[in-house]
Structure formats: C-alpha cells, structure tokens
Design a protein that fits this description.
The complex is a heterodimer of chains A (653) and B (180). Chain A is of the alpha+beta class and 653 residues long. Helix content of chain A is 62%, strand content 12%. In chain A, a hairpin with a 4-residue loop joins β6 and β7. Chain B has 180 residues and is an alpha/beta fold. Chain B has 5 helices and 7 strands. Classes of the chains: A alpha+beta (653), B alpha/beta (180).
Chain lengths: 653, 180
C-alpha cells in the first residue's frame, strides 16, 4: 500500500507543479491576479506531496519492503538502519527523488523568502521553479520510478553498494544536491527578470543570498565528496577529474563567478546581462552534469547504470529549459543597460577578470569533458582526457586569479587605484614571500619553481584578507557581516592554496612489501608491520593489519589499515588507516597478501592535506556568514517582520 | 546585438554533440578497450566443477570462442543468462565462462537452477585473472579468434539485439575469411 501511496503522491505533485508553472508564468503575463495568487497554494501542495513520496520510499527502506524493486536492489535486512535510510539516495531513482524533494524545499523557502517582493516577480520565480519541477517529476515517473514492485518479492535485498556505506557519503548527496537545487533558485530569479524584461540593483540584492547559500552548499558537498574519495577509496587522492566530479565542479566555478558578479551588479548596477547569463549557466551546467552522468554518454568511475530512454529524456529537457532561457536572454539582455562606466584599475575590472578566468577554467574543463565525444564523432579515434590535460589547463587560469584576489578586495570602486592600501598590500606581499619561501625551502625539501610561488600567493591572500578587518578594528568601526564573510571565505581560499601546494609539492609515497616485524621509512616516519588478524564485521569479513609508526625513534601512533570483503556483493574494499600528525597526514593502505606472511602496503605522508578540506569548509562558512548581513534582513524586515531569515533548505525534515 | 545570441548558438552546437554521444552511448564504444586487437592473455585456472582439473585457453588455440565474465552476485549476469543459453544452443561458437570473485558452491547451485551455457568454466575467486583481461565489471564478453587475438569486447548483458548486431557479423565475417 505504502509504495502505491508514494507513487500517487508523485503524480499529484506533478499535476501541482504544472499548475505552479502555469499560474506563475501566465498569471503575471496576462495580468490575472487570481491566477498569480494561486501559485502559493500550488507550491505548498507540491511540497506536501513530494514530502509524502519521500516519506513513503523511506518507510519502504526502513521496513525492508523487498517487494519494491528499488529497495530490493539497494538495501538488505542486514544493513544497519542508518544506511537503510541513506540507501534511499544510494542509486539513480532514489537520488532523483531526493533532488525533487530538495527542490520542493527550496521552492517553499523561495515562496516564503519572496513573499514581500513585488507579487508578479515572486510569482514568476515560483513559476520558473515549477517548470524545473515538472521536468524532474516527469523524468522520475516515466523512466526511473522508485516505487515499481517486484513480483514475486525477493526474500532479501541485494544490499547497498559497500563503497557507499560511509557516513561522509551518506551526507554527500543531500548537501551537494542542496547546492545544485539552490542554483535553480538563482536561475529562477534570472528567469523572472528575463520574463519581466527588467533588472535593477534591487534584483541583485534579492538574488545574492540565494546564490551565496547555494554556492556554500555546493562547496560543502564537493568537499564531502572529495574527503570521502580520499578516505574510503584509499586511492590517496582527493580529486580525480572524474566526469562526476567535474559535473559538480563546473557549476561551482560558475557559481563563484556569479556571486562576484552579483556584488558588482548590486553595488554599481553594472554587468547586468553578464550576471543574468551566469545565473542561467550555473544551473544549466548542473543539468548538463546530470545528463552526462546519467545518460551513459560518459563512462565514469561512479556512473549510474545507463538506460537509453533516460538520456533522450534529459536531453529533451535540457533543450527546452536551457534553450528557452538562452533564447529569452538573447531577446531581453540587450535592453539591460549598465548604469555607469569604470576605470581599468577599479575593483569592477578585477572582478570582471575574476569572472573571465573562472569562466575560462570552467570552459577548459567542459572542453575536456566533450573531447572524447567529439573525437569519436570526427572519427579521430578514442581519446581519453585525464589529469595531464586538466591539471595544467586549470592552473593556467587559476594562478592569475590568485594574483588578482588581493587587488579585487582592495581596489576602489569606479575611479580605481589602491589608494593608501597600496603600501599595506606591498608589505603583505613581502611578508608573504618570506613565509612562502621559508616554508617551501626551509620546512620541506626539494621545492620546484611553482611551490614557493603558490605558497606566497596563498599567504598573500590570507594577509590581504586581514587588512580590512584589522583596520576597522583599530578604528573601532563595526565590521558588516558581508565584509566578514568575504574575509573568512578568502582566508579559506588562502588556506586551501597553501595546503594544495604542500600536498602537490612535498608528498612522500611508496609501495612496500613487509613481513611481520619488518619496517620501512617514508617521509621522515618509520612504519613497522606488527601483525595481521582476520576481521569480523556485521556484513563483511576481511583482514586488519597493525602498523607501529614512529619518528626519530619516538612512537607517534599505531595504525590499523583494513581490507573488507562484503559477503552479499562479494566486493573487496580498502579502508586505509589515516592519522593526522602535526598537519601531516599519514596514510597506510593494506594491499595484497603476497604469501609466506608477506603483505604489500602503500605508505604515504601528505603534509597539510587536511587543510585542503578545512580551507574549503572555511570558504563555505564565509559564504554562509555573508548572507546573515543586515542589509538582506533589512530588505525583508523593512516590509514585514514575519518573514524570517533564509531558511536552510536541506536540513528540513 | 548578435553577441547576445552567442550563448544560444554555442548551446545548439553542444546539443548536437550530446545527441551524437547519446546515439553512441548504448553501444558503449566510448569505453577504450586497449586489449582489442591484442593477443588474449593466456590463463590456466582451476575448473569450477572440479578443482582437480584446470581450464586453459591455450587449448582453445585454433578455434573461435567467447569468454564470458560472470558471477552469481551479478544481477545483470542473470539478465543475460537466457540469451547465453540460446547462444550455446545455436552452437555457433563455444562459450567459456570466467567465474569471477565468486564462491564455488553458490556458482554450482546457480548453474543447476538456471542451466549451464558454458563449455568450460574457469574459476577466478580472487579476480586476479580478470585484471589481466581488463575486466572492470560483470558481465563482460570477449570474442577471441583462432589466432588467439581479442576481436571484440562487449560490456553489459548480451541482448538478442546485441547478439545479431555486434557478435554474429564479427563471427561470420571471420569464418568466411578463414574458410577461403
């Protein structure tokens, strides 16, 4: 009964989303106030229906209902409750339902958040969100219904893919999708402005908190995924330029460009059409990423099972959504004139360069994604594009961007120049260069050309970020949250850059074969193989080694790398032992049994690697801090006290 | 004002490329298979049915054969089992099984229930042999010619359509060449 209820709720949600899209777009266009007013009930109803469907699927998972195909294929009665719940989004159909659920949450939040904005504009925002909802609900119901029954039901399920049984990964899709779907709200704001054919600085102020929230969630989601890959996959890497990763990274780059461009549009009324285009492209890239990952066009490490009908559906949906938005853009954008000009050395220029570089980086990644498909189309043979392409091309656009960050923070608006900040920035640069070279040559050894340069840039960004808050503190002026948020986010960027440089430049790594009692040296540490014992988990077996780690004769830690075999799937996974020691990250992965008591191990010492993720999380925290700024709250409380601050979608229910 | 149309134009080009890629996708040709055209890795593995016997592809030299990688844990393999039985029934080409990362008892029970399409089955519980063949998922099926060269690799369950479209032409073309 419950699965049928879920399916029925999804069908009702589809009908309501059609109403939402129709009333939201047609109401304001035809000037019918009652139609316009009907959007809100449609949004609320859709939210209730989608939540019901989500609840039904969750109930089927929790209750081990193996008559539901999706549950049978992705869960198992031996699975702990936590992973039975996370199993809901463990595969294609359920993760789509999660997407739809989060879209419903964001739409409801948008309905509340735009309640005090002009009615027609708010209705159009919700109408555009409704069209997105229609697409995803149709897609789920037609090609990927999670409620399909099995006849006869299975006695037990196949179990969740073991590499997905990790708390980090359980949290990864909800957080990442919250970011993706948040970009849909920015897209809807752009869509509403295009439909109205009018865009002013107010629009930028309304849009900013939504775009920034989406960006912060996207940042967290990518960070979680990267941490999970590092920790669970035992590959010892944090970024692989895999199509799935790129699918989330491209919208992130666009989102980063968008939040900077929005700052200029709000402050100076410039870059209007450009900002609109970025808002459209950010979400478009989320959709395109979905297409690439789920259609089978690109085969990736963690791709979903491809079935032909799905790809065609998403492509059609892409053409309708993105095509309509870009056509509207081509028609309306020429009317959106900028309000003023600016000097070449003004902050506007630096933010424009920031945008150009971010979009270029995104473009090179996109080209790398497309290259294999194009080379087949042109009969150039098979081509695989990997890190040798992505790393250098990405660096070429990112290094200049890092150089620009301090200028972008301190150049004056409009008339340009650094003013008295020029000297402070020079001093900061000198100090940063000292720190950078000291770290690159003093603390570590074997530095190349790039390491001291990027260390310096990272340190400079951090120091430059601190100038403004310190200045305000000294002069006892309050620091607005927006400024504080920017400072924090840029410090996060600096931390990230330094950590990345250390890891890329100074990692020690080797594969060794050890028998009991033997030891090996790596990155200044000594690793001694003490013993190995069999492992007995709830749904897996395997082996666990014990490794004593010491440095200069002093014991540092004891590590227990594991190798697990999951019974139900007959799948072997590696659980590396990770230890954090004074900023360095020691990693031991258990390899093969070589016989005669010999085992292979992979040893790695990665300096500061943890700060890659910490830096990224600091960035996200900066974003979230910025949206609590008074002027966004004022914008709402000026008209009403009822509307609260931004609801955090995704944490709901 | 043409520049405002640029995004739309670029998007149109991308859509064309996507449509092409989608057209290609079901054939899975986009997966690079470095082993195609190369000699098949030779293996000698214990037989699934009888641990005291071994199965070696050296004995198959001079014959066409299919090597089908499967496991009882692999749901797509169950999907293709009827088609494999039909292929075995036609007698066009012998099918050699590589039972991958499996347990012997489960595999024997599985074959007893569903029928055995394989002429011989090599047992590879550790999955080491599959690595030499570049297997990264089951099911995968290789066509090997009498010279011991891998002619084709098919990923995913074999459907009747795939059999007539991807397998038969390769087997027949080759047979007329070797027959002349």
């Amino acid at each position: 009964m419950i699965p049928e209820l879920g399916q029925f709720a999804l069908i009702l949600a589809l009908l309501l989303s059609v109403l939402q899209a129709f009333f939201g777009i047609a109401g304001p266009a035809l000037g019918r106030e009652r139609w316009t007013a009907a959007v809100i009930p449609a949004v609320a109803g859709q939210f209730v229906m989608v939540s019901t469907a989500m609840g039904c699927l969750m109930a089927a998972f929790i209750g081990n209902d193996f008559s539901v195909r999706y549950v049978a294929e992705n869960s198992n009665s031996a699975l702990p409750l936590f992973y039975r719940i996370a199993g809901v989004w463990g595969a294609h159909s359920g993760s789509l339902l999660l997407w739809i659920f989060l879209l419903a949450c964001w739409t409801l939040a948008a309905a509340i958040g735009t309640a005090r904005l002009p009615r027609n504009f708010a209705a159009r925002v919700l109408g555009v969100l409704g069209t997105i909802s229609i697409g995803f609900l149709l897609y789920t119901l037609i090609t990927s219904n999670p409620f399909v029954r099995l006849d006869p039901p299975w006695a037990d399920g196949m179990g969740l893919n073991p590499i997905l049984q990790d708390p980090g990964l359980a949290a990864h899709p909800p957080v990442l999708y919250t970011g993706y779907v948040g970009l849909a709200v920015a897209f809807a704001f752009a869509g509403a402005a295009l439909l109205e054919g009018r865009l002013d600085r107010e629009w930028a102020r309304w849009t900013r908190p939504w775009a920034t929230t989406a960006w912060a969630f996207l940042t967290c989601g990518i960070t979680l995924g990267s941490w999970w890959a590092y920790y669970t996959l035992g590959w010892g890497g944090f970024w692989f330029w895999d199509p799935v990763e790129n699918a989330s990274f491209m919208p992130w780059l666009m989102g980063t460009a968008l939040i900077h461009s929005l700052a200029v549009t709000e402050k100076r009324g410039l870059f209007k059409s450009w900002t609109l285009l970025l808002a459209v492209l950010g979400f478009s890239l989320s959709l395109i990423g979905t297409f690439l990952v789920r259609s089978g066009v690109l085969i990736s490490v963690h791709s979903f099972v491809a079935s032909p009908g799905r790809g065609e559906f998403i492509l059609t949906f892409l053409v309708i959504m993105i095509g309509a938005a870009l056509a509207l853009y081509a028609w309306r954008a020429p009317q959106m004139q900028s309000e003023a000009g600016f000097e070449l050395s003004a902050r506007e220029s630096f933010l424009l360069f920031n945008n150009i570089l971010l979009v270029t980086a995104c473009g090179t990644i996109f080209a790398g994604e497309m290259a294999p498909i194009i080379s087949i189309a042109l009969h150039l043979g098979k081509l695989s594009v990997g890190p040798p392409y992505f790393n250098p091309t990405f660096l070429v656009s990112m290094l200049p961007l890092l150089v620009l960050v301090p200028f972008g923070m301190h150049a004056r608006w409009k008339r340009g120049g650094l003013g008295e900040r020029g000297r402070t920035l020079s001093i900061a640069l000198a100090a940063a260069a000292l720190i950078g070279c000291a770290v690159a040559f003093g603390v570590f050894t074997g530095a190349g050309i790039l390491s001291p340069v990027s260390m310096t840039l990272g340190a400079w960004i951090i120091l430059a970020s601190l100038i403004d808050p310190i200045d305000r503190l000294r002069r006892r002026i309050a620091i607005p949250r927006a400024v504080l948020g920017m400072t924090v986010a840029h410090i996060g960027l600096g931390v990230f850059v330094i950590a990345m440089t250390a890891v890329q430049g100074f990692t020690a790594e080797q594969d060794v074969a050890l028998t009991r009692g033997m030891s090996a040296r790596d990155g200044g540490y000594t690793f001694q193989f003490e013993r190995i014992k069999p492992l007995h988990g709830p749904n897996y077996g395997g082996a666990e080694a014990k490794i004593l780690v010491s440095r200069n004769g002093k014991p540092v830690t004891v590590m227990y790398p594991q190798k697990r075999t999951y019974w139900v799937q007959h799948m072997v996974t590696t659980h590396s032992a990770i230890d954090i020691n004074g900023g360095s990250n020691i990693l031991v992965a258990l390899g093969q049994d070589l016989g005669d008591g010999r085992w292979s191990f992979r040893l790695q010492v990665r300096p500061l690697v943890l700060y890659i993720w910490i830096g990224a999380l600091i960035m996200a925290a900066g974003g979230l801090l910025a949206i609590t700024d008074r002027r966004y709250r004022l914008a709402e409380s000026r008209e009403t006290a009822a509307a609260g601050p931004l609801p955090a979608a995704g944490t709901g229910s | 004002m043409m520049r405002y149309f640029a995004p739309l134009a670029i998007f149109a080009v991308i859509v064309v490329i996507f449509a092409f890629g989608l057209h290609q996708a079901p054939r899975k040709d986009l997966v690079p298979s470095p082993l195609i055209g190369k000699p098949a890795p030779s293996f000698t593995l214990p037989s699934l049915a009888d641990p005291t016997q071994t199965v070696s592809n050296a004995a198959l030299h001079g014959h066409w054969y299919l090597l089908n990688v499967w496991g009882t844990w692999c749901i797509s393999c169950r999907l293709e089992a009827p088609e494999l039985l039909a292929i075995a029934h036609t007698g066009v080409v012998p099918v050699i099984g590589l039972d991958w990362k499996d347990s012997r008892s489960a595999a024997m029970r599985y074959l007893a229930q569903r029928g055995n399409p394989y002429q011989q089955i090599a047992f590879d519980p550790g999955g080491l042999e599959a690595i030499h063949w570049g297997v990264y998922g089951a099911p995968e099926t290789f066509i090997v010619n009498p010279q011991g060269i891998i002619v084709y690799k098919y990923i995913g369950p074999i459907t009747p359509g795939a059999w007539t479209r991807d397998f038969l032409p390769r087997l027949q073309a080759a047979q007329t060449v070797s027959g002349s």
